[in-house]
Amino acid sequence: MQALSAMLKASDISNPTRPLQVYAVWVEGIMKEFFAQGDAERTLGLPISMNCDRENVAVPNCQVGFILAS
User: Taking the CA atoms of the chain, what radius of gyration do you get in angstroms?
Assistant: First the structure.
C-alpha cells in the first residue's frame, strides 16, 4: 500500500519535471479547474479556497508554492 501511495503521489507532482510546453498545458488545465471552483464558491457565498480566486492568484507563485510544498 505504501508503494502504491508513493507512486500516486509521484505521478501527481511530476508535471513540473516535464518539458515546458507540456507542463504549460497542465498548468492551464489545473488553473481552469481551480478558478471554476473559486467561481462556484463565490456564487454560493462561500469562502474561496486557496489558489482558486482568479482575481487574486498569481499563477507563477501558485505553481512555485505547489512545487515547494510537494
Answer: 14
Residue 70, pLDDT score:
63
**Pairwise CA distance, residues 4 & 30, whole Å:** 23
CA–CA dist 48, 42 (Å, integer): 6
What mean pLDDT comes out for the span 30-38?
96
Q: pTM for this one?
A: 0.77
Determine whether 38 is exposed, middle or buried from the number of CB atoms within 10 Å of its CB (0-12, 13-18, 19+): buried
Tell me the C-alpha distance between 37 and 35, whole Å. 5
Quick: pLDDT tens for 1-23: 999 998 888 887 788 888 999 99
